[in-house]
Amino acid sequence: MIRRLALFVALAAGMSSVAQIAVGPSRPTVVYNNWSAYDELSDTVPQTEQLCMRMLDEVIRLRKAGVQIDYYLIDAFWFDVSGGYRTWHRQHWPEGPDEWIKKCLDNGIVPGLWFSTNLISSGGNPMLNPLSEWGTSVTPGHSTVSLFEGAYLSHLMETLQMYADKGVGLFKFDFAYFDAASRSALSCMLPEEIVEANKTSFINALKLFRVKNPEILLIGYNGFGGDLEDTVHPFRKTVDSRWLEVFDTLYSGDPRLSDVPMMNFWRSQDVYSDRMVREFAFNGVPLHRIDNCSFMIGTTGTCYRRGTAAWRSSVILNMARGGWLNVYHGNIDLLDDADAAWLAKAQKLYLPLQEYGRTSLIGGVYGDVELYGYKSAVADGCLFTLINPTQTAKTIDLGSFDARVLFRDSGASPTVEGSKITLRSEQMVVIGTGRFADIEFDLGKESDIRIPVSVTPI
User: Fold this and answer.
1) 255-258 — which CB contacts under 8 Å span 24+ positions?
2) What is the rounded CA–CA span in Å between residue 398 and residue 412?
3) Range ranked top by mean pLDDT from 116-125, 208-217, 227-236, 254-263
4) Kind and range of the H or E element at 375?
5) Which residues, at least 6 apart from 392, have a Cβ–Cβ distance to it below 8 Å?
6) Are 269 and 313 spatial neighbours (Cβ–Cβ below 8 Å)?
7) Which residues is 382 bridged to in the sheet?
8) Residue 167: how many other CB atoms lie within 10 Å
9) For the chain, how long is the longest CA-to-CA vector?
């Protein structure tokens, strides 16, 4: 009770400062996340210091080739199970993170870290052993910790500040369980009271953290809203708007297969991410604050061991959806120098449109077998990124007669007739109009997805 009262007083004292802090990325930002270069959940590839440093060298290589990468986020399992996030994995990081942090900062890259919000054990396997000083924060099943009881939350915030003081500038929060409560709280509080107490305590703590660290990026992942498991449920309100007061972005789900019957495995994943972006927009999350988390390449189970299959269309869609947090996951060492040059060119087309243009959703409801896409517009031109998830040809009128195909899948071409364009089965295409209808913006083809001339039902 005393700790909570002190937190409330501190928050009240800093409210004028909180009101002046803008939440949300200040400009389109690119984050490299090393998840799927390793995978300790659906695979057996551990995260090690050697792997992280090797990927940092790859980030530096891509930056020298003109690719924008602003942050390097180390994902889960960097910490020792008994260290309360203050001790790094003793086997994989025997000397701690200082060399990695220094090399990031020396090369103009902001380091970032993953944290579980309050899940400490999953499937009977501990992620964190409870510290004695957390006291009554630990729940009866020892799988989660309460955010409004005991000292876990204050200890966590002190830990975040410790890393912020070292130069860490991005914090990813995952696995939030707001039903967590001690046996005592469970006996005297309603479930909705427990949820509200956890949310309020966490929101207030993050607001105070922002007051002291206004340049920090905070991003929310699993547990902060969204129906992420399928693409057939009707849209409903699941995102608490208060998260937009503390998180710069909210993610809309890891790439997975959609429920739309499709021939191409990778295009099905594209449709899933498109559907989730639409759902979060329905929930009132601005497009530029939705982290669609769709671009994963690598050799591990979490990305279906795709290697670099269909990576060009995937990264284009990642940027076309309008989110200002553009996250690139996994084995970026698989991208050669020619790939880096192509990616730099694609970024130079899309990232300025994110910042200075206006991105809007067009076409049908994503995942409901209707042609759909994104329109990014500036005063003298537009960029249309379109997908036809159906098994029949679909036509859309772009309202412009100077349309040029800038990127498409291999195989059969889309048909452009005046202001109308017809897309074939499962086809993705980028169309430029106005000043973008120029050969200088051509991005070529997606060689890993081949579009048929026709489709006949069996």
Assistant:
1) 255/293, 255/294, 255/295, 255/296, 255/303, 258/231, 258/367, 258/389
2) 20
3) 208-217
4) strand 372-378
5) 425, 455
6) no
7) 377, 433
8) 12
9) 71
Q: Please tell me the pTM assigned to this model.
A: 0.94
3-state class (DSSP) for residue 30:
strand
Burial class (CB in 10 A: 0-12, 13-18, 19+), 229: exposed
The predicted-structure confidence for 363-404, as pLDDT tens digits, reads as follows 986 556 689 999 999 999 999 999 999 999 999 999 888 999
Tokens of 396: 């859309």
Distance (Å, whole) CA 82 – CA 378: 52
pLDDT the model gives residue 20: 52
SS (H, E, C) 247-308: CCEEECCCCCCCCCCCCCHHHHHHHHHHHHHHHHHHCCCCHHHEECCCEEEECCHHHCCCEC
Extract the tokens encoding 94: 């025997």
What is residue 8's predicted lDDT score, i.e. its pLDDT?
Answer: 41
Residue 11 parent element (H or E): helix 2-13
Residues constituting the chain: 458
Tell the residue number behind the tokens 């607001």, with chain if given. Answer: 207
